[in-house]
Amino acid sequence: MSPSCPLCHPTAEENRAILWEDALCRVIRVEDPLYPGFCRLIWKNHVAELTDLSPDQRSHCLKVLCAVETALRQLMDPDKINLASLGNMVPHLHWHIIPRRRSDPHFPNSIWGPQTQTEAQPPRAPDDAALGAAIRQALEA
C-alpha cells in the first residue's frame, strides 16, 4: 500500500459500487453518464505494471478482466469493449473496461480523445447486482 495512492484506499471509492472482489483485486463501477457499464478492475497490492505480478497473479488478473468483459457483453450487447491499462496519472495497476457503441460521443476514438459526435441517448447501465452476478458466473465458467 502506498499512503498517497488513491487506488490503494477503497474508501476513496465510497460513491462507486464494488461489483466483485477477492483477496487480490476488485471490480468497481465507474459512474459516467456517457459510458454506462464502465468498470474498473483494481489490483489491491500497489504495483505499477502487469509484469510486476507473478505468472499466477497475471493469470488471475486476466481471468477477472475477461469475466468483466464477458458479463458486460452479455448484459449490454455493446458494439465493442475497450480495455485500457494506462496508469500515467495513477501508477497503480488497474484496467478500464468500457462498453462502447458506434453512437457514443467519442466513437471511434478513445473516450479520452476528442469528441466526434453527439449521442442521442446513452443505453442504460446494467443493475449492479446483475453485473456482479454475471461477473461471478463468468469466473465460474
From TrEMBL:
Domain HIT, chain residue ranges per copy: 6-107
Listed Pfam families: HIT (PF01230)
Region: Disordered, residue numbers: 107-127
Motif Histidine triad motif boundaries: 92-96
PROSITE patterns cross-referenced by the UniProt entry: HIT_2
InterPro entries for the chain: Histidine_triad_HIT, HIT-like
MF-aspect GO terms: catalytic activity
Protein name (Swiss-Prot/TrEMBL): HIT family protein
Cited PANTHER family: ADENOSINE 5'-MONOPHOSPHORAMIDASE HNT1 (PTHR46648:SF1), HIT FAMILY PROTEIN 1 (PTHR46648)
Originating species: Azospira inquinata
GO biological-process terms attached to the record: nucleotide metabolic process
